[in-house]
Amino acid sequence: MSDAAYLHGRCLCGGIRYRAALPVFHASHCYCTMCQKQHGAAAGSYANVASAGLVIEHGAALITEYASSDDGRRDFCRVCGSTLFWRSTAAPDRVAITLGTMEPAYSGPVERELFVEHKPAWLPCRDQ
């Protein structure tokens, strides 16, 4: 497969590098309170891909998994703290990769907003 058939990314310190095979099934902003706390932001933003296509190219030993609920696992770099992946226990064939860790930057559309009832009032509108 050509390099264009993958998403690429890394954590902040560069200790972990990954590639994930396309296609992206969907991209989303998740406003659940767990994503807000983990990301320290209004939302966690993810591209959902097949877990079989995710390859850790460097630094697999630096990945720490946190079981944030019975339904989800969150992977991050134990050195710099970068949030990398979210995995559903109900859908192990998929992995959600954080958009902010991708290089080059993700250029596809974000089609879904999840848990919008928790979307912060301080988040600016798109047209402002």
Automatic annotation (TrEMBL):
Domain CENP-V/GFA: 7-111
GO MF annotations, alphabetized: carbon-sulfur lyase activity; metal ion binding
Domain of life: Bacteria
KW Metal-binding (keyword) present: yes
Gene3D superfamilies named in the record: glutathione-dependent formaldehyde- activating enzyme (gfa)
The entry's keywords: Lyase, Metal-binding, Zinc
Pfam families (UniProt xref): GFA (PF04828)
Stated family: Belongs to the Gfa family.
Name assigned to this protein: GFA family protein
Organism from which the protein derives: Duganella aquatilis
